[in-house]
Design a protein that fits this description.
There is one protein chain. The radius of gyration is 26 Å and the shape is elongated. Strands 1, 2, 3, 4, 5, 6 and 7 form a seven-stranded mixed β-sheet that branches. The chain starts with a helix and ends with a helix. The longest helix has 15 residues. It is 49% helix and 18% strand.
Length: 293
């Protein structure tokens, strides 16, 4: 039995082992005490040699360290490792997805896809939506209006597409549809490359209401009639609202034949009123900087 096993993995033992390894293999790097701890954690976390060679070998070392540092179960590590490989995430994107709890949010939107779409498209469509969507990268507070959010999403479309997930391609904002001589405007229109269909996204600045589905359903019909090509699958709708009652959303979707999902979006929470009143105003700051002139 080696010294580390007899004496435990205390700091002194690790430092001694690191020193011995550097002495024995002076041409090799990576034998710092910190790295040895990671190596031990890696061996404990991934006992399956076949998985290590087939999957983890495709990820850089610092991606693997992020999986070890930020996740505690083998199942979640495997899921994020597979996603990082599939979508070619950088380490920073991997960490961001872990910290925003992508796994828990994926496939969580309230939908009627099982009843309105054939398999396997219904499963892929459900997994393509999240709940809630995190729009904190916009820098807007919960008091922002629908059009403000919409404008900011287009301005930050790269981050928006990352949050939407793989497969979404941006088509346009306020896309006009002429129906019987009347003009209607879709908030946001996307095309999903895997689902092979258009996705209409409507933003609502308040709580979900069943009547919202009528407007969205009308847009889906118009896109199917005027935009969709023959080879495209039926258009899907995603209604994003600040809050929703899940049961109300499920009831509302039950009698809707068109494929629609309902999810919440989250902005930066606005400051409490007490804190807002204690902060100096812009005029006060300018007065202080100007010496009270």
């Amino acid at each position: 039995m080696g010294a580390p096993q007899r004496q435990g993995w205390g700091a002194k033992v690790i430092e001694r082992l690191a020193h011995d390894l550097r002495t024995a293999f002076p041409e090799m790097k990576g034998f710092s005490p910190r790295n040895l701890k990671y190596m031990r954690s890696f061996a404990q976390a991934w006992p399956d040699d076949e998985f290590v060679q087939a999957v983890l070998a495709q990820l850089p070392w610092y991606h693997q360290l992020a999986l070890l540092d930020k996740l505690s179960t083998p199942e979640t590590r495997r899921w994020y490792a597979a996603q990082a490989i599939q979508h070619n995430w950088s380490r920073n994107v991997l960490v961001m997805q872990i910290e925003t709890r992508l796994l828990e949010r994926s496939g969580s939107a309230v939908t009627n896809f099982e009843a309105s779409l054939p398999k396997p498209q219904s499963d892929l469509a459900r997994e393509s939506l999240k709940d809630p969507y995190r729009f904190d990268f916009l820098g807007l507070t919960d008091e922002a209006q629908e059009r403000e959010v919409e404008h900011a999403l287009v301005k930050h479309v790269t981050e928006f597409l990352l949050e939407l997930g793989a497969g979404f391609a941006f088509v346009g904002r306020q896309v006009m549809l002429n129906v019987g001589g009347d003009e209607f405007f879709i908030d946001l229109l996307f095309y999903h490359l895997k689902l092979r269909c258009y996705v209409v996204i409507e933003l609502k600045g308040g709580k979900f209401k069943p009547e919202h589905l009528g407007q969205l359903g009308f847009y889906l019909t118009a896109v199917d009639m005027q935009v969709k090509a023959e080879q495209d699958n039926p258009t899907i709708g995603l209604l994003l609202c600040k809050t929703k009652n899940k049961v109300v959303a499920e009831y509302a979707l039950r009698d809707t034949a068109q494929p629609i999902g309902v999810a919440e979006y989250q902005l930066i929470e606005s400051l409490p009123a007490a804190l807002q009143t204690s902060l100096p105003s812009i005029e006060q700051i300018e007065s202080e900087l100007g010496g009270g002139e």
